[in-house]
Amino acid sequence: MIRSKSRQYCLSHLLREIHDVDQKNESKDWPVFSKKLRRLLGDALRLYARREELSAEEFQSKNGRLDGRLETLIFTHGSTDPDVKRIADRLTRSMQGLFTFLDEEGVEPTNNHAEREIRPAVIIRKNSLGNRSEKGASCQAVLMSIYRTLKLRGLNPVDTVVDALQDYMKSGVLPTLPTSDG
């Protein structure tokens, strides 16, 4: 299977959904499907954690077997259970992005880091009782993106934006964001 180089489906969200369905689904098909899927995802996460311990050949071999297990699970479940069908359909659509973290260095199996990064903007939006318009939401999104980017680059966001606006007032050209404080 050819995997996506640009997308990783968040395994935390998928595991949480499986857990939620486990709590309410009483069909005979769901526990079998759920157990196989949880085991598959767990094996993928364990392989990710052991990447440095394994030879490249062993890693690739185990990685390839995960693809086969995923395809078998998705395409041969034969269930009429609505939850099994729904999750299998979602896995079919996102199959190329399910194990990208095993192929691409630096790709995490979850989007937890990204969610932590946007949390400050979400808190500001909640504390200010939300955005009053689409234009306000767009403005806040741009400003928070600039702010967080500058912070991650080790820059003082307020000073950098003030300097940029001063440059803009003098030149009429909006400067690009600096890459670091060096």
**How many individual domains?**
2
Estimated structural class: mainly alpha
Query: Helical stretch count?
Result: 8
SSE succession:
HHHHHHHH
Instruction: Report the sheet with the most strands, covering strand number, pairing sense and barrel closure.
Output: none
Query: Roughly how many Å is the radius of gyration?
Result: 22 Å
Helix-residue proportion: 55-70%
How would you sum up this structure in a few lines?
The chain has 182 residues and is mostly helical. Helix content is 68%, strand content 0%. Helix 6 packs across helix 7 (134-152).
Structure, described:
The chain is 68% helix and 0% strand. With 182 residues, the protein is an all-alpha fold. α2 runs antiparallel to α3, α3 packs across α4 and α6 packs across α7. The longest helix is centred in the N-terminal third of the chain and has 21 residues.
Keywords:
2 domains; mainly alpha; 182 residues; 8 helices; single chain
Task: Give the helices and strands, then pairings.
Elements: H1 11-24, H2 29-49, H3 56-76, H4 82-94, H5 100-103, H6 112-127, H7 134-152, H8 157-171
